[in-house]
Request: fold
Amino acid sequence: MQNSGRRRELGLFLRARRDQALRADYGLPAIARKRERGLRREEVAFLSGVSVTWYTWLEQGRDISPSRQVLEAVSRALHLSDTGLDYVLSLGGYASAGPGTTAAATVPAHVQRLLDALDPNPSFALFPDWGVAGWNNGYAALYPNIATVPTADRNLLWLVFTDPYVRDLLPDWEMTSKRFLAEFRAETGQRLGDVDVKNLVERLKKASPEFREAWDRYDILGFESRERLFHHPAVGVLQLEHHQLSPSDRPDLHLVVYTPAPGSDAAAQMQSIMADAPRAS
Reply:
């Protein structure tokens, strides 16, 4: 992302966080019309120890170079999480995004072999823009459309927000889709100006009202391993644990692995699903 794009994204993010701040968390009374959320610029500037003018320029995306200390102070004032702080610092030029990729790239052979070795646990690899780089038979059994969806649409965020099969597959779709989007934003902050990522976001804004509404909230979250539920038409509800890791020699790739949740029947359910599923090519 060019410097101007990073400055604009930083300003929009700070404005969104300021608007969503709960005033009671700061010991401040509600403002006009009993509004309980939203801080004034003057209040954030005071809490950060910076001038109102300087903070205003930050939100406006002006051509300024805030120090790391200023960005940390503003982040603390807005009660940002560690992920939020990292995001702000990266947009300020104090952290680097991982290497980019192109939509036409394919998963390296050794990574595909690793995915295959993880069968029957559904597993797939993601590029930095969340394009699906490769997958194993277990994932194809869980989500059969992955083998037939057009390459341009083979992106996890696009599929979550536009594929009715995925919406039916996720009994907690509303919560999960918002969490995925918050994780995507946290991971791709500096790449939001890249052509592929920018086009993806613009396409999703047009294709999904839910995406458009959630995108404008500027939520961000760091990834955490967690239990996930899937409603598969053949076996009912699957309880899986969601893990993510990166190969040391390809840190730009994220491998997503779903393992059976402790005490669940997911292992047997996956074997049953795979017995009737087409094999990945």
Remarks:
- The mean pLDDT is 89.
- The chain has 13 helices and five strands.
